[in-house]
């Protein structure tokens, strides 16, 4: 049996925000933690940082090889690296949409595929994919970002069924609005249309105010630690009050009620 202090965790996108909070929380829980970032950053709070660009196969393979060289195993993978895109669905080119999916969806796929042979040899492992409440509901002016999170949800649920016989589980953590620099790093459309300028600006302001009033990243980190530790994990772990409310609304309220509530929240005409 693997002792708590022998377990090894990899957290992508761990230089700030949810990733950093998660890496610290896992360290406190007894894991040896390797965090990744696109650019080299120094080790902090016991987190061993490695460079990894999740859009590059060679970079991912090099990172995983380095973890194996240093630690010999990987027990937990937290796929956290991601970017945002705020704007009307028709305001982004196909190339911009592909770039978003390359990070948020195929980045998860690349790192997961690199780690799975190790976990299968170990006959044990846990993969926690950071989704979003936008993986459960539509979101005006987040059509492409919400699409990536819906994709991660479907991928994760399906993969979990495939891997259980190998002692590996795949679970989702769904944050709501979180106080991070995510909004500052959110991409804007590469072909903006004047007809959307006013409502897009309104949605940007709503995002800023929502993030300021959102959950601390430590709330999400706590959900990740729980998802990693439970012997019989749930399929999904919501993180924060808003995320719980959205999940309840999506599961139990009529579609027409969800539609009206969403438009009211987004300050769109009924």
UniProtKB/TrEMBL annotation:
Coiled coil: none
Molecular functions (GO terms): oxidoreductase activity
Superkingdom of origin: Bacteria
Key words of the record: Oxidoreductase
Pfam families, A to Z: adh_short
NCBIfam families named among the record's database cross-references: PRK06179.1 (NF004823)
Family: Belongs to the short-chain dehydrogenases/reductases (SDR) family.
Name of this chain's protein: Short-chain dehydrogenase
Species whose genome carries this gene: Paramesorhizobium deserti
